[in-house]
Amino acid sequence: MTTAEELELPVARKCPFAPPEEYTQIREEQPITRVKIPDGKEAWVVSRHEDVRTVLNDRRFSSDRFNENFPILVKGGNVFRRSNAERTMITMDAPEHGPARKSVLGEFTVKRVNAMRPRIQEIVDKLVDDILAAEGPVDLVEALSLPVPSLVICELLGVPYTEHDFFQENTAKLLKRTVSFDERQAAFENVRGYLSRLITTKEAAPGDDLLGRQIVKLRSEGTYEHGAVLGLAFLLLVAGHETTANMISLGTVGLLQNPSQLDAIKADPGKTLDAVEELLRYFTIVDTATARVAVEDVELGGVTIRSGEGVLALGYTANWDPTVFDEPAKLDITRGARHHVAFGFGPHQCLGQNLARAELQIVFDTLFRRIPSLRLAVDVDDLPFKSDASIYGLYRLPVTW
Ligand code: HEM
């Protein structure tokens, strides 16, 4: 095996049900070390649960993706920087970050998400009706995993769902590491252009949807800017559907591969939320978004990370850290995995986590209650996993019953 200094991160997942062995080796042998990254530079990788949480909760590590030293994990550079894109909360640090997040936080509280549950249930039921009518096999990605979060986020934002093919095609290009820089930039500009026109329409007649409500609120506070709402729309649209969609697909496979765990939630749907938490830990689908750049010198675990150096806080190794999660390779819905970092940690911890949990819970409960004999229609080794994308998942998931 190559030494950590020769290793380039991110390493593609070879086995869909465990971190790459290089990651485990780093955590065990050199938990804070330097590695190569695709933009030709080097960065620190931090791999233990405790250190990952420290980095993500320390203001000396910046989220500013426009900082020229911010580690870029795709070849060709940073699309957002080159396009001079709008700054959104995910790229901001204190004191700017707090107000930007607070402005929209009320839309994602447990109470607000609970109010969305009947509509999410209706969406899932209709899609499961269509699956049952199709008589199998069907591709679950197309039939359920993508449409659930896409419909939910489009309705919440006030973006016409009729455009979902256009969004999905373009976001898929943005997230695929093998797509060329020019193609990624074109995909970015396509979605950005569309959303900019949509927001201009909403400015003339803001409706009762998240974007409309933001326009009204920010105008009343005297701080309205077209670009800020455009950035927010882009962030929520991309963050809101690809992530949850991939967790629906992987979670389904994870449960089908672990029948005792699946039987436990079938027997007691009260356990589904625990299963969701454990599946989030087990797959940790977003582990490169939690990169940072040091803006001061920081002593951490016996090394000095210098101001201007990039840091990858590796959520996947943190969530499989055996000092925190006993037998991490075991999918165990009774372990109470709530302190996982699959949604990040600290000030940037996922804004949409309550919504994602609700969608996943409703989907798994409904899917396995209404189609109890659901099974894979192909061998698990033949499933097309997204080992080339910055959000892990599945391209297709053929199932039958
Ligand atoms: C941030 C994961 C679903 C909106 C994050 C971060 C992670 C993450 C790891 C932290 C990034 C960082 O520290 O730099 C996930 C996963 C999801 C999911 C695994 C689904 C299973 C969603 C949904 C939405 C959303 C449904 C919105 C509708 C956001 C936003 C941020 C964020 C706005 C930035 C928050 C901030 O910077 O303050 N997410 N996410 N996410 N997520 Fe999610």
UniProtKB/TrEMBL annotation:
CDD domains in the record: CYP105-like (cd11030)
Keywords for the protein's UniProt record, in alphabetical order: Heme, Iron, Metal-binding, Monooxygenase, Oxidoreductase
Pfam families linked: p450
Family: Belongs to the cytochrome P450 family.
Source taxon at top rank: Bacteria
Protein name: Cytochrome P450
